[in-house]
Amino acid sequence: MVKTISGIRRLDTLKSVVTLLPSIILVGIFIYGFIGNTIYTSMTDWGKNAGLALNPVKHLIGLGNYKDLFTGFIHSRFRQDMVNTIFYSLFLLAGTLGLGLFLAILLDRSVRCEGLFRTIFLYPMSLSFIVTGTIWRWLLAPNGGINLIPEVFGLQKSSFLWISSRDSILSFNWQNLPIILLVPVGLFTLFLFIRDIRSKKTARGIVYGIITLLSVLYIFVFRNMFPPILPFEEKHGLNLATLGIILAGIWQYSGYTMALYLAGLRGLSESMKEAAMLDGANEFQYYFRIAIPNIKPITLSAVIILAHISLKLFDLIYALAGADNINTGHPAINMYLTTFRANQFASGAAMAVILFLLAALFIIPYMIHSHKERKVK
After folding, report:
1. What is the radius of gyration, based on Cα positions, of the chain?
2. Per-residue pLDDT at 1 exceeds 60
3. Which stretch of DSSP H or E encloses residue 283?
4. The pLDDT value given to residue 50
5. Which of 51, 118, 193, 357 could form a disulfide with 209 if both were Cys (CB 3.0 to 4.6 A apart)?
6. What pLDDT, in 10s, does the model give residues 95-109?
7. Per-residue pLDDT tens for 5-49?
8. Cα(273)–Cα(184) distance, rounded to whole angstroms?
């Protein structure tokens, strides 16, 4: 009997492997194989000489393309695009999470015509970025759309250039990039060091402490011992033209975060709210001290998904501002232009790999966290 059960299990395992094997092979070739090929291409000089030749000659040059992107004279646009990406991500996250939570709280109070409002708020998410970009291109036109709203109140119309402004704020020198990156890293690892020491996780705490110490030593002691990453000053900052892209992105995805938060709030037990009200809490205190802390996993999921979306704004920017608009640049747009217009395939592949790594910074920690939670359960 035992042998029979064991044989059945082995047969089921074999059937499962045979069923999954075609999918595994296809995923291995068309996803991971192509990723590997892109990484290899980014380490060659393909495109430097006769990139469109039938049999192009490629030589391995290591990390030369990556070095050029961050320190080369001709790639200042890519560096500004990277800065734009940070601001796109930060403002898209803050705007969609904040507005989505606000709308979810309003609907959670059982307003009249809730189904209608929920449909209206969710509708933008059903549109593609191409459609959204086309709509907002009209709305953000210098002589129409949003700029005409002040005239409704008897004021002079606005002349703000939503997608073509050349003004920047929060500017910084690219030469100071190591310090700008190490300050938040040092503060974060210091927090982790204190947390782990208090919870008696000494070994991991020592690692975080070493990282904090190295960050402090570089910032205050050793930074003048290393040459600057650029031999000249190069200013980058938040270009005000990106505000139009951010506004359109928030409009499209705030309904999505509203749906996530509303589902989380409705999933909380009614007795929790009743108990809070009996203890003297008002609605503001209930939502911000009890409800929101209890739906942290939803916030984490929303952050991961929206951060990933902020790295894929190619079609929205292309439709709304155009590929050649330097003021609203994004690495994905730059990658397209570098690869398919300039035929610099290796440089374009390097940009693609950088975007891939940025996405992995959000996805991999989330997958590890989810895996640990499943193991605990």
Report:
1. 26
2. no
3. helix 283-286
4. 60
5. 193
6. 999 999 999 888 888
7. 666 677 777 777 888 888 889 988 888 899 999 999 999 888 776
8. 37
Classify 173 as helix, strand or coil. Answer: strand
Can you say how many angstroms the Cα of residue 324 is from the centroid of all Cα atoms in its chain?
22
Residue 340 lies in a domain: yes
Q: Are residues 255 and 329 in the same domain?
A: yes
| Better-scored residue on pLDDT, 136 or 72 | 136
Same domain flag for 194 and 335:
no
Q: How far apart are CA 163 and CA 316, in angstroms?
A: 12
pLDDT confidence of residue 83: 92
Domain count, the chain: 2
- How far apart, in whole angstroms, are the C-alpha atoms of residue 321 and residue 319? 6
Q: Which residue range(s) make up the domain with 181?
A: 177-225
Are the beta carbons of 327 and 242 closer than 8 angstroms? Answer: yes
Sign of CA dihedral 35, 39, 42, 45: negative
- At residue 377, does pLDDT exceed 60? no
3-state DSSP helix/strand/coil % of the chain, to nearest 5: 75, 5, 20
Phi-psi category of 330—alpha, beta or left, where left has phi over 0 and alpha has psi -120 to 50? Answer: beta
Alpha-carbon span 259 to 183, nearest angstrom:
36
Distances in Å between the Cα of 350 and the Cα atoms of 68, 85, 242, 332 are 10, 16, 24, 11
Residue 197 shares a structural domain with residue 339: no
Find the helix or strand (DSSP H, E) in which 314 lies: helix 314-320
Cα–Cα–Cα angle for 210, 215, 220, rounded to 5 degrees: 125
Strand locations in the chain (E): 168-173, 235-239
Distances (CA, A) of 165 to 161, 300, 374: 5, 34, 48
d(CA 170, CA 178): 17
- Asked if residue 160 belongs to a domain, the reply is yes
CA dist list (Å): 301 to 90, 150, 358: 16, 38, 17
Half-sphere exposure of 240 (CA within 13 A, CB side): 10
Beta bridge partners of residue 173, listed in sequence order: 235
